[in-house]
Amino acid sequence: MGGEYLPDFKREEVEIARVTLQSSTQDVISVRAKPTANRIKYRIVDEYETPSKISPASSSQPLSMDRLIRLMDSAIVGAYDGVSWPTGIVWGPLTMNLENSDDPLELINFVEVTSEFYPELGGYYADEIRRFLQARSEERPS
């Protein structure tokens, strides 16, 4: 779907990170931030209105890149059948698809992370995903 069915932004809300899956429907998961009187509130949305739990749910200052990574990697996202994904909006979908792949390296471009606010975020995840899949590839018998 490519993100066109994501929920509308709330007033003053911005997308701080986007995870795009190279699935048949090109699913998108959006990490959003919204300033309030004295906090910044965060939420994760997707095109299916899947419930999620994140930590931190808010902060007094913008998140550092490390804290954003922890938020993304620790998010618990409910799946469509009521069972939650493996933890994280990057690692969960990647791990679920890895179970059905004969060659882990086929998934090297399955997850793309982008951010206008954290320009190094995409490179960080690309490197981590590459290392993760390479290790899984080496573990599999030939």
The gross shape turns out to be: globular
User: What proportion strand?
Assistant: 15-25%
> How is the main sheet built?
5 strands, antiparallel
Number of domains: 1
Q: Given the structure, what is the number of helices?
A: 3
How much helical structure, as a percent, in the residues? 25-40%
Given the helix and strand composition, which structural class is it?
alpha+beta
Average residue pLDDT: 92
Strand order of the largest sheet: 5-3-2-1-7
User: How many strands appear in the DSSP assignment?
Assistant: 7
Unreliable residue runs: none
Query: What is the helix/strand order?
Result: EEEEEHEHEH
Question: Helices and strands in order, then pairings?
Answer:
Layout: E1 14-21, E2 28-35, E3 40-46, E4 52-53, E5 58-59, H1 65-74, E6 76-77, H2 91-98, E7 111-114, H3 121-139
Antiparallel strand pairs: 1-2, 1-7, 2-3, 3-5, 4-6
What does this structure look like?
The chain has one domain. The chain is 26% helix and 23% strand. It is built from three helices and seven strands, in the order βββββαβαβα. The strands form two sheets. A five-stranded antiparallel sheet has the order 5-3-2-1-7. A hairpin with a 4-residue loop joins β2 (28-35) and β3. The longest helix has 19 residues, at 121-139. The model has no long low-confidence stretch (mean pLDDT 92).
Précis, in short:
This protein has 142 residues and is α+β, with helices and mostly antiparallel strands. 26% of the residues lie in helices and 23% in strands.
